[in-house]
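Lecture 7 notes: from sequence to structure.

We start with a single chain of 595 residues. Read the sequence below before looking at the structure.
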Amino acid sequence: MADAVILRYLFTFLLINSSSGLPGLVEDLHLNLNVNVDSLDDDSSPITESTEVQHVDEPMSIDQMMVQQPRMRKFRKRYKCHQCEHEDCDDDEERTCSNALYCFKATVRAADGALQHSRGCTQRSDHYQFTCRTNHNQGPHKRHAGQLHITCCRGDMCNNGSFPALAAASVGGVGGAGGAAAQPLPPGGWGLWGGVVASVLVVAAIGSMAIFVLRRTHRLRVSRSTQHKLGNESNYFSYSPQITSAFYEGVGAEGSVSGVRAVAAGDSTLREYLETSQTSGSGSGLPLMVQRTLAKQVTLLHCVGKGRYGEVWRGAWCADSVAVRIYFSRDEARWRRETEVYSTALLRHDNLLAYVGSDMTSRGSCTQLWLITHFHPLGSLYEHLNRNTLTRHQMMVICLSIINGLLHLHTEIYGTQGKPAIAHRDIKSKNILMKVNGECAIADLGLAATRRKLPSRDDPRQGTPRYMSPELLDDSIDLECFESLLKCDVYALALVVWEVTRRTEPARDYRPPYYDLLAPDPRPHHVRKVVCGGARPHPPHSPHPTMVGLANLMRECWHQNPSVRLPALRIKKTLLKLAAYDNSIHLDDDNEVSV
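Now the structure, written as tokens:
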């Protein structure tokens, strides 16, 4: 017992001196003293050689993981270890390595799935991090988990015995396709993937709802704007199909944007126009665009109408709906003429069909002449009157918008880039388009004429026979006088106003002018017999002052004598005067009819 007391006093002394910077010596002496004390307590004989074994697989502190200082290496205890490679570990021959700091034994699974064992030692302290801490406590979530297992220890021959075990290799893992062992997804993994999928679904649902709300808000805003302009006429569009944003986004009726895409056919015939155009397209100059590639950007969706001079298709261009009028190659002169007129400076007006561009394309083996304009889903005034009746307010909106467009055509603007006076020469209800706000836009300028380019008497293209004036029918018109062409437009305008008033409450069935005297598609000589004989459509019999005033206005405009017919400006002022005295017609602050 006295020896034990002495050893304890020595242990206390070493603890007091442990702060002097000898951690390696203290550690070694502490281990040796523990062994001696345990031996003395167990009443065993003192041992002359301590053979302690310390495994280093347990978690280590930072100080333990750090490489010891060089000045302390001579105090580190050295061991003797077993040493063998995979081929030699099964032999009975004993191989050893001495002067080691650590002993280790390892198990490795090769690419073919076979297990390879080895034993060895580490003689340098800086090798510890690369040998003993390589895959310490790797979990199953690691990519190479279960492929390498190394166990280190400190003590003489401490690396004997069985080798460390590895996790079982799964089918298709190591030894299969050469990849890591496939591990089952842990319970927490399913929750993580479920959260990711749920997040994606929530974001998609929110995005869909946002798109739906934005589209519905846009439609409501357009509808309210139209209702505000048209007044309280809630049944204005009752005849028409539901107007959605598909009309304006270039989406077909089935929700598909696939269509026939045109292919350019070499150089465009508009090169001379493009070379002479020096304006920005702001409205004061030529509105032509880069038209040699315009047809490539337009997708044809479906045909909306056919006529004598070609077809009209609805197309998609830059996310907008456009109307593409395709002329036959034999009507190139008409297409060229209409392109020139639409390219006139200062022609843009709210009541004239907006022009986008023209181009010549090839479809199959046929050459097509394209005229691209804005698309109006409600169709022509002719279709509008066939489907719906009008109030006096709606009637006045239509009549004033038509006369505003015609007045802009007939007016000559002087200036550096002025606008010449233009005669339409084919005014009729089928050439007037309905806009969604209840106004109209005059279209089809293929027969338009100016003072510099008057029609010749040999030109048979004089317009629609039913709407021809008496002087055109009996060839008494002076084609050298431009004002005579303007009078012909006023005559045709009177017939269009008659069609509109016939469908105004109290409305009657729609009928074209002279329906009781002419066939559905009359010849010019048949129309000449009726019109030159003095026959005219019967004005409405309504006793209302507005309708009576419109009847008198029509009689003046379709008079047999062209000089008696009113000019476009006088017609507009008369209509505004009639509207001012009608309480059912709403006027704005500028004394214009509110649309």
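Residues 203 and 332 are 54 Å apart (CA to CA). Keep this in mind for problem set 3.
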